[in-house]
Amino acid sequence: MYYVGxxxxxxxxxxxxxxxxxxxxxxxxxxxxxxxxxxxxLLALGQAGIDHDDCRIGMEATGHYWIALYDFLVSHxxxxxxxxxxxxxxxxxxxxxxLTKTDPIDANLIAELLRVKRFTSxxxxxxxxxxxxxxxxxxxxxxxxxxxxxxxxxxVLDRVFPEYAELFSDPFGPTSRAVLKRCATPAQVKHVxxxxxxxxxxxxxxxxxxRPKAEAVMEAxxxxxxxxxxxxxxxxxxxxxxxxMEFIDAQVKYLDAEIAELLEGSQGRWLLSIPGIGPxxxxxxxxxxxxxxxxxxxxxxxxxxxxxxTKCQSGxxxxxxxxxxxxxxxxxxxLIQGADGARRLDAYxxxxxxxxxxxxxxxxxxxxxxxxxxxxxxxxxxxxERPYEPAPPEHHLPxxxxxx
Length: 404
Prior knowledge:
Strand content: 5-15%
Distance between the termini: 46 Å
Shape: elongated
Number of domains: 3
CATH class of the largest domain: Mainly Alpha
Mean pLDDT: 88
Number of helices: 15
Largest sheet: 5 strands, mixed
Strand order of the largest sheet: 3-2-1-4-5
CATH architecture of the largest domain: Orthogonal Bundle
Helix content: 55-70%
């Protein structure tokens, strides 16, 4: 058996091969991240007498740059393994105490790590699941952009119109956005006048607000202590940021429809039956988990999400209970958000949360315990393809409750 280590980079990779004894069979050499470069790798392995039946190839999960090479190798019959950089970093510290890191050295290091440690073969998710992952992560990015714009807008309003935040229950709702696009400063409010402002608010709120709200805005503008210096420029900035928010909201709404359609054809559709889990969270969980059958137990899914507790025991010191956070941050976020909704709307999760609180656990630690419990429920529902039941059926796979 031969072990091939590949150090992944954006434009070119390095590869090296070791035999079962650890001897270097192929010295580290570079090859481009192109079809010609991939052919060069196969040629070098073939010249060394290394066939796809008697070798294993390992590479670090460096960004997305490994995917093309991985797909190429699998299509040519090779057993390819994607290694977590945490493993290679730890092995590097064992191999040497020197702060030495180069691409040729890393290629040899990965090959040797592959030889001494057993790794299970990796796989790429199916196309629908990968599509769901791309869209949910993109949606999360859009929501982050919108949050950033809201924070910037709030900072500008605190300067030019600090009283504005108290005028609307949602400063970035449809009615408030219509006002901000037209008059974001006290001077602009006074220039528009109460009558036109009332018509603007009445139309944006679909008749729910009108002249009383306009008069409140006008009164706040008259008594405002906002700074007038560069107010016109800042008002333009506010209007443009609000328009960006509206554009992002439209994109998110379109994404939600596409995500819901993909979710309906996946194992994750059963997650919608859990109280507090909506389409967005269900899609995020489904996308990050992939095929639920690759997790043999809830404990492994919890570790994959980084929700597992750390353990540190040395001498008289024994620390236990801190979240490891070594896993999929997106899945961890979705499980914690889902746990917060489930513990409020479902008695099973709510009672468990209350029990942890009664035991003296802080709020966030109690919520994390509920998220672990939720991970077991999610895994069972996806594997068994059934809706949520507070008391699971007798034939269910061990997940969120033990069977007597």
